[in-house]
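User: I'm putting together notes for a lab meeting next week and I want to include a structural view of one of the chains we've been expressing. I don't have a solved structure, so I'd like a prediction I can at least talk through. The sequence is below, exactly as it appears in our construct file.
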Amino acid sequence: MTRLTRIGIIGCGSHAVQNLYPCFRLAVHNPPEILGAAIGDLAEGGAIGDLVACCDIDEERATRCARDFGIPRVYTDHRQMLEQEDLDGVIVAMHPRIQPAVAIDCLEAGLDVFVEKPPAQTVEDCIALQEAARKADRNVMVGFMKRFSEPYQRALAIAQRPEFGSLTAYEGRWTFGEYPPRSVYDFLNGFGCHHLDLARFFGGDVKWVMAARASQMPGDTREWTPSALELPVVGSAWRDMSALVEGREPLQEEAWACLVGFESGAIGTLQLNCLERLNERVVLTGHRSVVFVDGWRRVTAWVDGADTPEVWEPSDQLPLDALDPRHLHGFAGEIRHFVECVRDRRRPDVTIDDGLAAIRFELAIKRSVAENRPVDV
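Assistant: Thanks for the context. Below is the predicted structure for the 377-residue chain, given as structure tokens.
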């Protein structure tokens, strides 16, 4: 029997437990066939990997995670896990302030690594992670799962048809109703990074950006640098750190509007805010053609020469694994892709280079606001 690829996970917080751990059953252990999927046939060959260990500084949380997902061994020190387990790859799902150092430990142990988005909070930490991967001759994949989601994969496939024409204009809009204080997560870094990467996924490298910001935060100024980095990162940052700063710092309530120029010559707009309900929309304009993705779900395309639109949305009324939202939204696809890349020793489709590009994009947006001018990325 072929040896299964052995994976460990560091981090048992809410995101990992809700979205990453379940994907081993959905996409790695015994994946179902995804009928008509644009993300590829996940049924190929059955199980390809095994989740053999999990780690979290909160032992109770790690033990509960191991129980819920059938993981044989639990650790509270990731270095001990790296020393004692015969691993092929590691998934690191931690706060971006501490994630780079842990990921570098994994690389130095000779392992391929998946890190959650954003890979870091700073360019310097991201470059350190990039350099560690180069030195270890190992790969770092970044969890920009929207690239693997079926609606966006379908939209990209339509936009790449010859009759669609070259991408001329891009529009992205993503909103979130209530975001934690900035000392917990920076909104643009921790949340907006998804759509900074998605713009690059569809439009290619970004050349310049002109941005504006508006805020409803009490006493807000033009300064948005994280103000309380001395706060410890405890367990699940979203929950535990929010409790630490409750009453000391306001929730983030702000909007960012960006005009973007791509290296290809295409232009784009991004509107990201934490002022309204969770919502999302992407529009790709070619030449006499357009494709809309509404609600990260429904795809509508008008292609040059067609009399009627092409419309797709998932038929997910039945409770099947193949229709699990983690397949639709790309979590299953990204985990499957990482395990396959570890198994085959190949470079992932989304790497630490893309993570660094997203952080440079983020900083260019902030600099544009601060200096009230277009900024090269």
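A couple of points you could mention at the meeting. Confidence is low (pLDDT under 50) at residues 34-44, 226-230. The chain has two domains: 5-146, 167-285+351-376.

User: Perfect, that's what I needed.
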